[in-house]
Design brief:
The complex is a heterodimer of chains A (69) and B (394). By secondary structure, chain A is mostly helical. Chain A has three helices and no strands. In chain A, helix 1 runs antiparallel to helix 2. The longest helix of chain B has 33 residues. The relative contact order of chain B is 0.23. Chain B has 394 residues and is an all-alpha fold. Classes of the chains: A mainly alpha (69), B mainly alpha (394).
Chain lengths: 69, 394
Amino acid sequence: MFHLWFLLVVGPVLVYLAVKRLPRDAALFFALSVLSYVLWYGIARDRPFVIIRLIEQGIGGVMALFGAA
Amino acid sequence: MGATVIRGSQYYFLTVNFCLGTTLFVLIQSLVQAGGRDAWLIPLWGGAAGVLFALLWIWLCRLYPGMSLAQIALSALGRPLGTAVATLYFLYFSVIAGFVLRNLSDFLTGTILPRTPGPVFHVMFLIVASYAAAHGVETIARLNQLLTPLLAFPFWFVILLASVNWDWTRFAPAFRPESLAGVFRFSGILGFPFLEPVALLMIFPFVGGKTGRALVAGIATAAASISLTVFAIIGSLGVERSAKLTYPIYSLVQEVAVNDVFINIQSVISIILLTLIFIKLQVLYYAAFETLRQTFRPVKRWPLLLGVSMVMAGMAPSIFENSIQNWEWSKKYTFIHDAIFGLGIPALLIAVTLIRLAAGNRPGAGRGARAGGGARSAGKGARSGSGTRPETGG
């Protein structure tokens, strides 16, 4: 059901941008759509990606790389 | 079409309200827990550091007059690396917007509207923010200027009314070494809210007059306002109670009753705080939108507005799982995360620029500068005021 709703929102916009021959606009919108799909898919499954945990891991990784952790 | 320029005073009010934004909601309990009776000192030293950060940002903007942060990254680092840095800034602004939206919905579901799902608030606020962003920076600045007196006077009046329970002994004993150590150990204040105004650099080139002075004065005023608010809360509620309340400012005002004339004035403070949060969201939305628009230069703006709104609406429920996780994050990672974008990257851009200048290579003369000229493009963006390059800058 989630996929259908998402496609209904994103699909027409992508088709419109393709018909109008705006490849840069379409690529940018597609990239944002993929990002929002990842976020909303987690929310729809009731298991959202926890962004601060991802950032924590990133910072921890960088600190470990430089021997500060 | 002439360049869109907002006044220095409008930028000043925007800076003040951006810094206050969610701070009055989220931070006061943590400040009181960290600093005890002397917690009101934390925003003062944080604000002093914030002024130093602002001086760094002003230096960067003066090296590239008339350019926003995204354009500076493209000019200084060239197209590929500049695009990567601009994209990182888009994600950073989106993450902060996610925090702002989540704080907002947590407050509303916790106090006024407990049955309404959080995403309803997120989407409603994002629709208005995207509408304002589509109309450009001038609309945002004017709206903020119009709202500021309507926020400031009732806010301080309500705080004044709440001081009927004032007790000076709640500040005693003051300035004890252990509480002062807590005051200066609270490094989170540097990140949130005093490194987040880096988002205002996306508006910096659109400001006419003494822009740097407006930014510095705005940060200093916000620091003084937060300090005064914490002072009023400690004097009225005491440290023990304030440290246990999730929203001390709301609880403080909830207890105010002057005869039968002024009762239930917590609704006033709720509206003021919601409006402040909205202003912060609006600036972040505009910064995120303009970062992408100036970097990738799309022809149509509405698909970009839709895309940014979808990302931010997805960020808000995903940003953290619960308030304990958020509290842990604030304690350990807020400063590091904000320092990367508020100090690290601007310092890197300044260093690269100075090296290139020393080598006789004027930054902005190559491909990167042309690529970063998206904000100068004509068309709908220019008409709406968000797509022109201002004549004055720095």
